[in-house]
Write a structure and sequence with these properties.
Number of helices: 19
CATH class of the largest domain: Alpha Beta
Strand content: 5-15%
Radius of gyration: 22 Å
CATH architecture of the largest domain: Alpha-Beta Barrel
Shape: globular
Largest sheet: 8 strands, parallel
CATH superfamily of the largest domain: Malate synthase, domain 3
Length: 542
């Protein structure tokens, strides 16, 4: 790891005006050597696993079903546990999520939540400034040299005492995303390895010295083989940097339908580094639509807001997750409360807070050990729900949920939900899609839309539902069939409404037409795009 050795990894495509301040503090020669080593050892296997995803999707298209894997029955029947939980992750009753910009870094650490999911993935558009700036903000926070003053309001932000700060769990990008600005041997480095590698290289030992460690959330996992690859990355990274094996801890988001059938196998592959599983609601619904998009009417999801966690197939998913985690000694972390409080309408807040409270009460009652919120004002509500069940205990992993028995068909019993697509659902999908994509193209990954914190997952479910409804020839509640023409009409009306709402100058300065065009492209093309963010990244500035 000689700092003076020339790095085989190049920084490309960064214009002088796009170069983040203090970039060299992150992209040191030694750090670039580490990224190059990660790329050379693991990028090829990553590519093989992405190809395997396509094979799995082709199998689903052919069979219209999924099942637990017969070849791994011995894992599900075996007697094993994940590694003991480190003290810093014992109590996870409330976790706040958000991007790693400077203001959010301070607010999340100060929020009163036990954990902050520091997000380089769905809540962060991968501009070069965000990629590098986020790494700097985390380092600055650990060194307690971070503050922020809002130029608009003049309000200043600073960290509370260290013992009051949330424990950081970093979410790198998914395996499918590349980082175009870092090239090794002529190929872009996988974004997951960039985000993981830079954070681990610069902070692992510092975190150990603080009594914590390098902790990660793993997104978009589709199989236990992908979890195995992450485990190999962890083993290599710990050896390379002289960090004791087992120091890394990973929580895997079960946010794809294929991963739901491999929960135990995923924990098994990561057993020396696993700390839990999380129920990621919107990406999970997106994955169901993506995989069963052409499997007929019984797989058509209604309006996304009509699919609550009490839907039978969602109950099967969450109860299986809790049972699996507690059987293996892992934390079960619940889903997102995405509501953003209104500063102008207390009645909206009152109704929303009650829904959040009921959702968190249900999760705590079901056996979850903690849950997510998107806003600091929701931390006390979620905490109260889990305090009522946990008391002074850090978790409830002793609740084994042996009463739960989930069959393979229960997870994909979409037609068990008594709700149907509506015109308002179509319009909301278009509204959220355009508004979110426009913000993403400006470098914002977490966006408040209609009092909900939206990220890439909600844009994915929105455009996927439009695609599915058109191809399934869905008839809406008002009698109209969903067609490409109807989607274009609704999109044109929404674009005009936005222009009228914000004014011509702001409309022209934004990315509204690009967002409109991209939404229609990924919603109407005959060939389904696996991830909206892939074509969006091609036109993302910075």
């Amino acid at each position: 790891m000689s700092a003076s050795a020339p790095s085989p990894l190049e920084v490309v495509g960064v214009e002088p005006g796009q170069r983040p301040a203090r970039q060299d503090e992150v992209l040191t020669g030694a750090a670039l050597e580490f990224l190059a080593a990660l790329h050379r050892k693991f990028a090829g296997r990553r590519d093989e696993l992405l190809a395997r995803r396509a094979e799995k999707r082709a199998e689903i298209a052919r069979t219209a079903t999924l099942d637990f894997l017969p070849e791994t029955a011995h894992v599900r029947q075996g007697d094993w546990q994940v590694a003991d939980c480190p003290p810093a992750l014992l109590d996870r009753r409330v976790e706040i999520t958000g991007p790693t910009d400077r203001k959010m870094t301070i607010n999340a650490l100060n929020s009163g939540a036990r954990v902050w999911l520091a997000d380089f993935e769905d809540a962060s558009a991968p501009t070069w400034q965000n990629v590098i700036g986020g790494q700097l903000n985390l380092r600055d926070a650990y060194e307690r040299r971070i503050d922020f003053t809002d130029e608009r309001t003049g309000k200043s932000y600073a960290l509370r005492p260290a013992e009051e700060l949330a424990t950081v769990v970093v979410r790198p990008r998914g395996w499918h995303m590349d980082e175009r600005h870092l090239v090794c041997d002529g190929k872009p480095v996988p974004g997951a390895l960039v985000d993981f590698g830079l954070y681990f290289f610069h902070n692992a030992q510092r975190l150990i010295d603080m009594g914590k460690g390098p902790y990660f959330y793993l997104p978009k996992t589709e199989s236990h083989l992908e979890a195995r690859l992450w485990n190999e990355v962890f083993v290599f990274a710990q050896d390379y940097c002289g960090i004791p094996q087992g120091t890394v801890r990973a929580t895997v988001l079960i946010e794809t339908i294929t991963a739901a059938y491999e929960m135990e196998e995923i924990l098994y592959e990561l057993r020396d580094h696993a700390s839990g599983l999380n129920a990621g609601r919107w990406d999970y619904l997106f994955s169901i639509v993506k995989n069963f998009r052409d499997a007929g009417s019984r797989f058509v999801l209604p309006d996304r807001n009509a699919v609550t966690m009490t839907a039978p197939f969602m109950r099967a998913y969450t109860e299986l997750l809790v049972r699996t985690c507690h059987k293996r000694g892992a934390h079960a972390i619940g889903g997102m409360a995405a509501f953003i409080p209104s500063r102008k309408d207390p009645k909206v807040n009152e109704v929303a807070f009650e829904k959040v409270r009921a959702d968190k009460d249900r999760e705590a009652g079901d056996g979850f050990d903690g849950s997510w919120v998107a806003h600091p004002d929701l931390v006390p509500i979620a905490k109260a729900s889990f305090d009522a069940v946990l008391g002074d205990r850090p978790h409830q992993k002793d609740r084994l949920r042996e009463d739960v028995e989930v069959k393979a068909g229960d997870l994909i019993a979409i037609d068990s939900l008594d709700a149907r697509p509506t015109f308002e659902g179509l319009r909301n999908a278009v509204q959220v899609g355009i508004r979110y994509i426009e913000a993403w193209l400006r470098g914002l990954g977490a966006v408040a839309i209609f009092n909900l914190m939206e990220d890439a997952a909600t844009a994915e479910i929105s455009r996927s539902q439009i695609w599915q409804w058109i191809n399934a020839e869905v008839v809406l509640d008002d009698g109209r069939q969903v067609t490409a023409e109807l989607a274009r009409q609704v999109a044109a009306e929404e674009l005009a409404a936005i222009r009228a709402e914000i004014g011509e100058e702001a409309f022209t300065a934004g990315n509204w037409q690009q967002a409109h065009d991209l939404l229609l492209r990924v919603a109407l093309d005959e060939s389904y795009e696996d991830f909206l963010t892939t074509p969006a990244y091609e036109i993302l500035r910075g």
